[in-house]
Specification:
This is DUF2922 domain-containing protein. InterPro entries: DUF2922. This protein is of the alpha+beta class and 72 residues long. The protein has one domain. It has one helix and three strands. A three-stranded antiparallel β-sheet has the order 2-1-3, covered by helices on one side. The longest helix has 14 residues. The two termini are 25 Å apart.
Length: 72
């Protein structure tokens, strides 16, 4: 079962932008995630004009279950 941590931000256009982290350390430390998201916003390294991250929207842990079937 693969897990990803999704970091959702609001950009300068009011739209949602998402960063995904594969195989995050568990249990997820909510305070650490918030601090990192604030640092990402402060660094202003994503997006461009009006598309930079301006606020934290949400973070969520997503689990993916995949079942492979052998077709004979």
């Amino acid at each position: 079962m693969a897990k990803t941590l999704e970091l959702h931000f609001t950009n300068g256009l009011g739209k949602t932008s998402k960063l995904t982290i594969d195989n995050p350390k568990e249990p997820v430390d909510k305070m650490a995630v918030k601090q990192v998201m604030d640092l990402i916003i402060a660094a202003d390294i994503f997006g461009g004009e009006n598309q930079s991250f301006v606020s934290v929207k949400e973070a969520r842990l997503v689990e993916h279950n995949v079942t492979d079937y052998e077709i004979v």
